[in-house]
Inverse folding.
């Protein structure tokens, strides 16, 4: 292996994004060396990854998971250090890798991502929830440490690719950018009548037509909350306000997003819907890396369709815009209530249409305040989760 290989830590290595990142890295032997992998409770897969990629460090959820991993690895454990819990995650995030892939799902990803940012290396951000919860704190931390933040979310990676070299998030208009358009597939219920949405099951919601993803983001895609979270994410990443951020439904998921310029130009990034494209882009940037992704066949595709989102059937998108416009703690409330509601829906304790109702209730109950630091944020997050759980319990009792 080359001495000057780029060191990579993957937070959330056993997830959909984590495994795609390892797939891309494995296509470039000698170029990358794995520093740390974290796998929470997916010990079987983490053990396989440890055998194959030989990280210096592996992190799991707790002591029990750590001994299970040690047992599964047996002699193959060699000199792999095994840590657990939040301290283990922070240690991995701060282990000085050249690149850290932040691919833990949900609020659990915030602290490790912030730890990696503080380290000042290159952060490949998939965990959009951390920007939604803590956008100002997160972007301040990036500015302070001088970290390079590259988006892995396909839409934001597309926007990044369509922005000019001289782009500054402090003054987007200076580079002629007038609008950012995020595309949305519309999810598995794009054409489902409103009257049938009440009855849809977690399995139906997780069967995305174009993308294979973790369960939480799959449900977010089905409610369009994923696009709402992405609007907030884009606003922080690119310094664009809600009035200059639009969502376009594009069922084929070929155009991943677009940037509009003052001269009438609109630039789009297109590729097959495969997360290995944005992952390879960010791992190699500014170089281009082979990603194992089939090139587009435009003639085979024949057509690309675009339409407006249906806010009546999918109120979560509007709630996200509302939270972005309210600012302060509102997006953190939106995110916390959404996480609770999605988890209740996956546990079959809340109907699909109840997700938006729970979030709306949480937003109505919470006063919008400025977030002065991580402790203030965690207090807001905790309070919103309590309100959401109460609303979920009431919805359950009424069924
Ligand atoms: P996933 O459920 O497949 O994987 C999540 C990873 O996080 C796993 O490695 C899991 O072990 C780990 N994890 C879960 N709970 C944890 C906890 N409490 N503490 C520590 N680790 C924990 O999810 P995913 O689809 O890979 O998504 C990961 C993130 O990337 C999400 O924020 C999602 O919104 C974002 N994202 C995913 C995709 C995609 O195509 N999957 C696309 C864009 C953005
Ligand atoms: Mg996305």
């Amino acid at each position: 292996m080359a001495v000057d290989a780029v060191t990579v830590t993957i937070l959330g290595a056993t997830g959909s994004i984590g495994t795609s990142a390892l797939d891309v890295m494995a296509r470039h032997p000698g170029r990358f060396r794995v520093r740390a992998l974290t796998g929470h409770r997916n010990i079987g897969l983490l053990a396989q990854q440890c055998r194959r990629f030989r990280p210096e460090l592996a992190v799991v959820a707790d002591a029990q998971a750590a001994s299970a991993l040690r047992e599964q690895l047996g002699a193959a454990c060699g000199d792999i250090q095994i840590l657990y819990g939040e301290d283990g995650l922070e240690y991995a995030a701060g282990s000085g890798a050249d690149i850290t892939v932040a691919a833990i799902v949900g609020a659990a990803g915030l602290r490790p991502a912030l730890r990696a940012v503080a380290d000042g290396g290159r952060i490949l951000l998939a965990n959009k929830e951390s920007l939604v919860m803590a956008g100002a704190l997160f972007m301040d931390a990036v500015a302070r440490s001088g970290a390079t933040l590259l988006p892995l979310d396909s839409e934001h990676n597309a926007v990044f690719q369509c922005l000019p070299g001289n782009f500054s998030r402090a003054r987007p208009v200076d580079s002629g950018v007038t609008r950012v358009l995020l595309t949305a597939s519309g999810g598995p219920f794009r054409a489902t009548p409103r009257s049938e949405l009440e009855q849809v099951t977690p399995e139906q919601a997780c069967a995305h037509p174009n993308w294979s993803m973790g369960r939480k983001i799959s449900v977010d895609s089905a409610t369009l909350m994923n696009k709402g979270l992405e609007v907030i994410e884009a606003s922080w990443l690119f310094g664009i306000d809600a009035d200059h951020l639009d969502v376009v439904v594009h069922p084929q998921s070929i155009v991943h997003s677009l940037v509009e310029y003052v001269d009438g130009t609109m630039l789009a990034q297109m590729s097959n819907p495969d997360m290995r494209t944005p992952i390879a882009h960010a791992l190699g940037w500014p170089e281009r890396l082979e990603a194992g992704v089939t090139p587009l066949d435009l003639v085979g595709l024949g057509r690309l369709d675009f339409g407006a989102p249906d806010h009546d059937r999918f109120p979560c998108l509007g709630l996200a815009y509302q939270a972005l416009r309210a600012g302060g703690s509102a997006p953190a409330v939106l995110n916390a209530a959404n996480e609770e509601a999605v988890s209740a829906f996956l546990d079959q304790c809340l109907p699909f249409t109840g997700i938006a109702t729970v979030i709306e209730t949480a937003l109505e109950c919470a006063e919008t305040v400025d977030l002065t630091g991580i402790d203030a944020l965690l207090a807001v997050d905790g309070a919103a989760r309590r309100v959401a759980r109460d609303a979920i319990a009431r919805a359950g009792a009424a069924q």
DSSP finds 17 helices and eleven strands in the chain. The chain has three domains: 6-151, 153-321, 327-398. Residues 183 and 314 are 15 Å apart (CA to CA). Residues 374-398 form the longest helix (25 residues).
